[in-house]
Amino acid sequence: MLHVHTVDNGRAFLRVDDFAAPGNRFYGRMRLRVDAFPTAPDWAHFTLVELTGAGSAEVVRPVGGQYAPTVPGIFWGVGADGGPTGDWTDWRPSAPVTEDAWRCVEWRIDATDNRVATWIDGVANPELTASTYEHGGNDVPFVLPTVDTIKIGWQLYQGGTTPAGFDLWIDDIALSGRRLGC
User: Fold this and answer.
1) Edge-to-edge, what's the strand order for the sheet holding 73-81?
2) Under 8 Å CB-to-CB from 155, ≥6 apart: which residues?
3) What is the DSSP string of 55-96?
4) Which of 36, 60, 124, 156 is deepest in the core (most CB within 10 A)?
5) Residues 118, 106: Cα–Cα separation, whole Å
6) Which value, in Å, is the radius of gyration of the alpha carbons in the chain?
């Protein structure tokens, strides 16, 4: 089990280098418990899984989320940064986070149509999907990198957070060519 503790806008990741999936298509799964998600500052967003590699500048975030003060709430979302689509977290009110409870989160990466898909507790949430022409960023194609690095942990991108620190536990991490399920 991995225990991650960060303060304010800190980050801490378990890093898998030299990863190679046939056809740049793979599944990931982890069980996690986050004591508390950010409720300040407004629009604070976080990442739990980040993917990078060759062939695209996109830093893909298949598991992350954002505090949305206008709803209000904290929601899971798919996102990216660093590439032509810009910095975005496509959070969805249909996917609220749950604090201080174990959750199983799965994701799929498929270069066929640059698709990122997410399941929470074994249930697919089609709204937590990105693909070449359907994503939360700039009006340009979203292109997955050929993933060779996977980071699993926590990063928060804004300072002055409430709470001031974050603790999470991650267990049962798996990467596979087929969906493993929860």
Assistant:
1) 11-16, 146-156, 45-54, 59-68, 73-81, 88-96
2) 6, 10, 11, 12, 13, 46, 47, 50
3) T---EEEEEEEEEETTTTEEEEEEEEESSTT-SEEEEEEEEE
4) 60
5) 6
6) 15
Q: Is the dihedral of CA 143, 148, 149, 150 positive or negative?
A: positive
pLDDT digits (tens, 9 = 90+) for 136-153: 999 999 999 999 999 999
**Helix, coil or strand: residue 131:** coil
59-68/45-54 β-pairing: antiparallel
C-beta separation of 76 from 63 below 8 A? yes
pTM for the predicted model, two decimal places: 0.96
Q: Are 83 and 58 in contact (CB under 8 A)?
A: yes
State the virtual CA torsion across 137, 138, 142, 145 in degrees, nearest 10: -80
CA distance 169 to 35: 9
If you search the block for the tokens 């990122």, which residue do you land on?
A: 116
Q: What is the token pair recorded at 6?
A: 């960060």
pLDDT tens digits for 45-94?
Answer: 999 999 999 999 999 999 999 999 999 999 999 999 999 999 999 999 99
Structure tokens at 115: 């698709």
